[in-house]
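User: Predict the structure for this protein chain, please.
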Amino acid sequence: MADISRFPSLVLPFAITGAAAGWLSAGLGGRLITQPLAALCATVVAALAGAILKRLCVGRRYPYELNPPDPELRPATDAWPLHVAVVIATGAATGGLAALFIPGCRFRLQCAVGGAVFAIVFVPVCLAVIAAARRAQRARLGSIVAGCDRRAVWGILAITLAVTTAEALPEWSPAMAGYGLTPVVALALLVLTGVVTLFLRRADAAALKRARRELEAGLTARHEADPEPEDAGLVPLDLGLGDGVLARTARGAAAYRDRARTVALVRGSPELALGALQGAVRRGTVGLVVIGMMGALHAAAARVPAVVLYESRCDLGDRSACRMAQLLRRDP
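Assistant: Here is the predicted structure, written as structure tokens:
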């Protein structure tokens, strides 16, 4: 059974996903739907879905169960088909709720079906966040790896949301611009995900540097027969993975009279912890590359319609448009 104390909350990540999904999906509908109101409806419904999905992932623990929860065991309700069904139902509920407040949704069933269809695009986002939250149970609370795993939930959310901004690429077309729709919010979301990913990568890199600094300082395996540290305030550094204990000792100035004393303790497996931290740093690097590629894709999408628009005006005899189209074609 999953450990509910280690399983992160999914309410806020799913609320953010819902807000992004509502806004981006509504943008594809042109004037048929109001983006702010659609985003608000999706935020509320998605937050509720996040609470439901966490309950499905952790299962139910009965009072008579005395053994501690095993994070490796997954309840029957923690299954991806059920998660996908909840996400699609969330989209349908958002569409039905939007039909109550948005005049453009004349048929509630039609809007509910549309919401379910748009939710399919965000199924990979939700499954990736759930997988990261499930993996966050592996490390002990308060450890270095535990903090890294909890940051991974937000890191994966940021990367996947950056990819979903591709849904706003059609808004760069001149036809959509005629409706007053431009992907400003999508661009802001892309920039925000880049900032968050950079911040999380720096935090993971700092955690990796700290772990390496402690592990490279002459630690040796500590046995049960070894004396306890004299300093009662000595707090061991918990790597989070593995149960072994490493210690660093030091002697006083008089080497023959002063016995060795423990000056540092590290709990956990260095190999497992360093592997997890290095993976987190690599994930941040890949995320920055992906977000940069999405930015280039938006830049290309904004440039091509502009060329087409000026060339169409040039065909109508607008000489200034001809010069602008020529400049855009030359500019790499």
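The chain has two domains: 11-211, 214-270.
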